Amino acid sequence: xxxxxxxxxxxxxxxxxxxxxxxxxxxxxxxxxxxxxxxxxxxxxxxxxxxxxxxxxxxxxxxxxxxxxxxxxxxxxxxxxxxxxxxxxxxxxxxxxxxxxxxxxxxxxxxxxxxxxxxxxxxxxxxxxxxxxxxxxxxxxxxxxxxxxxxxxxxxxxxxxxxxxxxxxxxxxxxxxxx
Length: 179
Prior knowledge:
Blueprint: H1 10-16, H2 34-47, H3 61-73, H4 76-90, H5 132-136, H6 145-148
Helix pairs in contact: 2-3
């Protein structure tokens, strides 16, 4: 059988073939080639595609997926990874402080990639924000208007939003003097 350049080499297969169990199916037809099934699994994992897009040279995707789920459930794939780790560790090729596999997956929304957000017709648009301080001090709105805006003079000593009733008296004005 002709091997694809991305498939396991003979040397790689010899390292792990004793860990891959033979098929125990009693269907009357010969079992699938374990090496071909493993190559199909590695192809899917490296390509990151859906199982339905499996290259036809590996056979039906359902068969390869069946081997994948069975070997994962039975710990066969974990044994392969462990055996390869032990082999590399004996050679001093693994830095255990840095070695890890990250299986996290964060899904971004379509709008994060530039697509328009879906807005329901029931939601009303927010009012445009007007830089009222810049208008009152006769400044043209700009990106630096907050940095150049001057404080407006207020006619009374209390400013809007700070009513005299809501102010808490200070300790010195609360009638407690230090004498």
